[in-house]
Specification:
Length: about 240
């Protein structure tokens, strides 16, 4: 049994923002639990956020500087949704509008509607890596790990340097019990971002699942030194009694 406490953040499309500048985007967190048919208890891998910050609203020419984007608790959901619905009613082939509406639905907790809109955005723009990425995180939230793996694979195909997608795909592989595939993803990500605490922590979990406690401890220590909270907990945890 794995107790899952993922730290997920959706990706933001700067292009989408330019087309729908009033949509105030924010980061939010997901959580849940999952059964995993291993004989021991492990902390769940943490899906890695994109690292992108919400882009600020573009200031119009000769106008005062734009105010910073609203936080999640001040987002006028109904107002923003109404605006996007109006855009879609005029042009139902606007991939960016579907992408942003999908984000709004996910923010509100309407996961099925969010998935549908991310999928529509992908249908209209096969190279929309942000839509694949967000839908992949959504699939992790919904425990659709196979679908998540496919989406993160598309992100990597479109952007071979997408270490965050590798981190998330490895997390999904580990949830499916595919330890070697998970390790391959974590190690590929670490080649791009050596010392990344999320990748180190997740690789430590994979080593632990594989029975290699020495390597797992080494990765947990490195991640803890980099400030990873879950790794710190792992390092402080007492050794199991023999």
């Amino acid at each position: 049994m794995v107790q899952e406490n993922p730290r997920c953040a959706v990706r933001f499309s700067e292009r989408s923002w330019k087309r729908i500048p009033s949509l105030m985007i924010a980061v939010f967190f997901l959580s849940g639990s999952v059964s995993w048919g291993q004989g021991e208890t492990y902390k769940a891998p943490i899906p890695k956020p994109s690292g992108q910050q919400p882009p600020a609203k573009e200031a119009e020419k000769s106008a005062a500087p734009a105010a910073p984007a609203k936080k999640a608790d001040s987002l006028d959901y109904e107002f923003e949704l109404k605006k996007i619905n109006s855009l879609i009613s005029v042009n139902d082939r606007n991939a960016d509008a579907f992408f942003n509406r999908g984000w709004l639905y996910e923010y509100k907790g309407d996961l099925q509607l969010a998935e549908k809109d991310y999928s529509r955005a992908i249908e209209l723009d096969k190279k929309n890596k942000d839509a694949y990425y967000n839908r992949g995180l959504l699939c992790i939230k919904m425990k659709k790990y196979e679908e998540a793996i496919k989406d993160f694979s598309e992100v990597v195909k479109l952007d071979p340097s997408a270490s965050d997608a590798l981190c998330n795909r490895g997390s999904a592989q580990l949830q499916m019990g595919r330890i070697d595939l998970a390790l391959a993803d974590f190690e590929a990500g670490l080649k791009m971002k050596p010392g990344d605490p999320d990748l180190l922590y997740n690789r430590g979990l994979a080593f632990l699942a594989k029975g290699n406690k020495a390597k797992a401890t080494e990765d947990f220590n490195k991640a803890a030194q980099a400030g990873h909270p879950k790794a710190k907990e792992q390092v402080k945890a007492p050794a199991p009694k023999s």
